[in-house]
Design a protein that fits this description.
By secondary structure, the protein is α/β, with parallel strands linked by helices. It has 23 helices and 18 strands. Helix 9 crosses helix 22 and helix 22 crosses helix 23. The longest helix has 18 residues. The protein is elongated and about 85 Å long. The C terminus is likely disordered.
């Protein structure tokens, strides 16, 4: 008689229910796994056999056939070990199929029957929840992560015998997680870098505050040593805490990649991904035969920092254009396409020229015009058009460097204003599929970024003077909306619009092609 055990597999960040069908036939002893398994699933034959024997149970001395249905869906990973073992033990009448039919099973088995943790448990359990599963047994180390789903009953087992005993005599206690407690703890975290240690650069600090408040992209251009990298490292300290939906989305991504902290089941702060300029385009956007998330997905709801931005190959920078516009990346392969979220803030830093001193008031630039043009042309016009805030960061004067003034504003004070502005946006867009001003679509801009007559006249003049594109026009309105939020203003005024226009682009980069 064929018995069926429930589990799931992940493709991209989406989970699909899988039925593990087990049959024992009168034939030569052996074990076969069918249903598009990869190498790690096929290797389960030896792991499961040893785990069952070393746990004190008998393994069938006949032909064991395992089918992973649906058979046209590729199966990968080691999470199939436990459901396969449960199917075999059910065939051996160690477990009752009537009792296990309401459960799903996820986990890797060691040779002695110990359950090891696996990647992607949260998306797997969320997929099973959508399929109507009410109970799931997972490795003990993954139990808290799995319990974040909020509805499915999660039982964490340490050994194969614990799973068997759960259906016979000793019930495993369900795992309960207080998600709000984790999010509250996140708001109390310390940061290694603080804006109080950054001397001067008030304009740049204000620009970074606006970027954090609205989720806008920003590019800092300035001489070497002006503080661009230091301010970038301070940037995470003013970012608002994650909303629950954002935290769960991030946790799914990091769980699949095996990057979830072992001591924390939930991602509690926004990611800050600093990428070296030797990174490939596949490393940035993701890929591979079995496509994995790239840096833009790992930076989802956080920051992708490109230091020395023009040192990146132009081909690598150009792949950012579509994700910056759409907030997602689609990786297409012959058999399927995978969509990953990519709603990140791009934070770039660069020198204005090869020697780094173009426009510097104290040191003369030694570059030729052709060198400067060639250097700056690595950033294309379409890419710059997608960067909301472009600012110059001047080198500090000797007086500023030697200053011992301790009156610089700390990150905690800036963060309070950012959080207040974000809360205004969350309340404003509670009935919309967005969280921040940077995500506003054309229709939503018309709805939430209305201008008075004087502001319209000002913007009309700016369009002609600066030859603004349609995209830049929209981004200026979004930026003005964020500046108004920081000012606790319900309406966008002329002052807010004028401030937004100041960030339209650095004069140093005006000739960029």
């Amino acid at each position: 008689m064929v018995n069926t055990v429930k589990t799931a597999t992940v493709i991209g960040i989406t989970a699909y229910e899988v039925s593990v069908e087990t049959d024992v036939a009168n034939s030569l002893p052996g074990m076969a796994i069918v249903g598009l398994p990869d190498a790690s699933v096929n290797e389960a034959r030896d792991r499961v056999k040893s785990a069952i024997k070393n746990s004190g149970y008998s393994f069938p001395s006949k032909k064991v056939i395992i089918n992973l249905a649906p058979a046209d869906l590729k199966k990968a990973g080691t999470s199939f070990d436990l459901p396969i073992a449960v199917g075999i033990l059910t065939e051996e009448e160690v477990m009752d199929s009537e009792k296990t039919k309401d459960y799903a099973f996820i986990g890797e088995l060691s040779l002695d029957g110990t359950l090891r943790g696996v990647n992607g448990v949260l998306p797997l359990v969320l997929g099973l929840k959508e399929a109507g599963v009410k109970n799931v047994i997972v490795p003990y180390v993954n139990a808290k992560e799995a319990a974040l789903n909020g509805e499915v009953n999660v039982f964490g087992a340490k050994h194969l015998t614990d799973v068997v005993n759960h259906f016979i005599e000793t019930k495993i206690p369900p795992t309960v997680v207080d998600v709000k407690d984790y999010l509250n703890r996140a708001s109390c975290q310390d940061y290694a870098f603080d804006f109080k240690d950054v001397k001067g650069q008030q304009k740049a600090k204000k620009a970074l505050e606006i970027a954090a408040a609205g989720g806008h992209n920003i590019l800092m251009t300035g001489s070497p040593g002006s503080g661009k990298t230091l301010m970038a490292k301070c940037f995470p300290s003013i970012l608002p805490p994650l909303e629950l939906s954002e935290a769960l989305e991030l946790t799914k991504i990091y769980s699949i990649c095996g990057l979830l902290p072992s001591d924390e089941p939930l991602m509690m702060k926004r990611p800050f991904r600093a990428v070296h300029h030797t990174a490939s385009s596949y490393g940035i956007i993701g890929g591979g035969s079995n496509p994995k998330p790239g840096e833009i997905t790992l930076a989802n709801r956080g920051v992708l920092f490109l230091d020395e931005m023009v040192e990146f190959p132009r081909s690598v920078l150009e792949v950012l254009r579509q994700p910056l516009e759409d907030g997602e990346i689609v990786i297409s392969r012959a058999k399927h396409s995978i969509k990953y979220p990519a709603k990140f803030m791009l934070l770039g830093a660069m020198n204005p020229c090869p020697c780094g001193f173009l426009g510097d008031k104290e040191k003369q630039c030694t570059c030729t015009d052709s060198q400067i043009n060639r250097y700056q042309s690595r950033l294309s016009g379409p890419l710059l058009d997608r960067i909301d805030i472009q600012i110059e960061v001047p080198r500090l004067t000797s007086a500023e460097l030697m200053s011992t003034n301790d009156a610089e504003e700390d990150s905690a004070s800036i963060r309070k204003r950012v959080v207040k502005a974000r809360q205004m946006q969350i309340e404003r867009y509670k009935n919309e599929p967005i969280l921040t001003n940077s995500e506003l679509t054309t229709d939503l801009i018309k709805k939430y970024c209305k201008l008075d007559d004087k502001s319209k006249e000002l913007l009309k003049v700016a369009i002609v003077k600066y030859q603004l594109s349609g995209r830049r026009y929209d981004r200026i309105l979004k930026l003005a909306r964020t500046i108004a939020d920081l000012d606790s203003s319900k309406d966008i005024t002329q002052i807010h619009l004028m401030q937004a226009l100041q960030y339209k682009g650095s004069s140093i980069l005006d000739n960029t092609v």
